[in-house]
Specification:
alpha+beta, Alpha-Beta Plaits, 4-stranded antiparallel beta sheet, globular
Length: 174
């Protein structure tokens, strides 16, 4: 049986350049907060190619999974502007965030998810245009990946431990 402390997780969300430039970061964050996820770290940054290589290949294995060309398209897209890095905490946060975000390809994302409501592009179209898919957000894919990504994007002193009022109901702290 899993222990309570193992089920309360931290995960990384990046609001990508298209989310920042379209002015919908607040709506995206609101979706996470409404289900009881707690922001424990947040900052705006303009990462360089080296950080994205660590993020997308050393941790996420994008080149290994999808090839060098896909990585280059994505890198060029991510370098078009700043991102908002968010560390969220909650009960089974990694899986919950993935559910809220929807599938990576916006075309496949159901309505009600962030990608399904705010973006629409297919992998085929982006490949034909030679661009990365503007899919608004990155969300950690697994608990292990989340731990590595949070450590890459946030120094320990940039995240906070505190109890919020939602925990009474989202974690059964009554």
């Amino acid at each position: 049986m899993a222990k309570e402390k193992d089920l309360v997780q931290r995960t990384l969300v990046l609001c990508k350049p298209d989310a920042v430039q379209r002015g919908i970061v607040g709506e995206i964050i609101q979706r996470f907060e409404r289900v009881g996820l707690k922001i424990v770290g947040i900052k705006m940054v303009s990462p360089d190619a080296d950080l994205y290589e660590k993020h997308y290949e050393e941790i996420g294995k994008l080149i290994t999974r999808r090839g060098e060309q896909t990585f280059r398209y994505n890198l060029n897209y991510m370098l078009t502007g700043p991102v908002i890095a968010i560390c969220l905490e909650g009960v089974e946060a990694v899986e919950l965030v993935r559910k809220i975000v929807g599938p990576t390809e916006p075309k496949s994302a159901p309505m009600g998810t962030i990608r399904g409501d705010f973006s629409h592009m297919s992998f085929g179209y982006s490949d034909a245009k030679g661009i990365g898919v503007p899919n608004l957000v990155h969300a950690s894919g697994s608990v292990e990946e989340a731990k590595e990504e949070v450590s890459l994007w946030f120094k320990p002193e940039e995240t906070y431990d505190y109890e919020d009022l939602n925990e009474k109901y989202t974690r059964g702290n009554w």
